[in-house]
Amino acid sequence: MTELHPFKWRHFQADIILLCIRWYLRYSLSYRDLEDMMLGRGLYVDHTTIYRWVQRYAPELERRCRPHLKPTSDSWRVDETYIKVKKEWMYLYRAADSQGNTLDFFFSPTRNGSVAKKFELRKRSK
Fold first, then answer.
1. Does any domain span residue 6?
2. In principle, which of 16, 36, 52, 113 could form an S-S bond with 12, CB 3.0–4.6 Å?
């Protein structure tokens, strides 16, 4: 993609190619799942074609996006606080890294230890 027009001479438009690549990389979808999803939108894209797109464009996308991501460390903690949201009191569970940057958050109407544990386990698995 270092060339001026990386999608030149491709059968599909660039936004369709990028959408398939993004969905494959972000969600746990197979190439055949993406093929079915595109077919549901009226586009026939073979799963092998999507595989080739990912192999060709994903490394370049990663190289271009990496500098714009927020740097985080492996050290993080979960905070719990009670705040008012739209005139209702809610519990806010917040995962923060060592610099205090918010990694993720979760609202709960009741204080629940099992919910906090699930949130903490979900953050560890990421």
1. no
2. 16
Number of Cβ atoms within 10 Å of the Cβ of 53: 22
**Percentage of the chain exceeding pLDDT 90:** 14
Q: Which residue has the tokens 């953050």?
A: 123
Amino acid at 72: T
Q: For residue 43, what are the contacts with CB-CB under 8 A and spacing of at least 6? A: 12, 16
- Kindly state whether residues 60 and 91 are assigned to the same domain: no
Span 44-70, pLDDT tens digits: 999 998 998 899 888 888 888 888 877
Q: In residues, how long is the chain?
A: 126
pTM of the full structure: 0.52
Looking at the 3D structure of the chain, how many domains does it have?
2
For 110, the 3-state DSSP assignment is: coil
Residue 90: Cβ-neighbour burial (10 angstroms; 0-12, 13-18, 19+) = middle
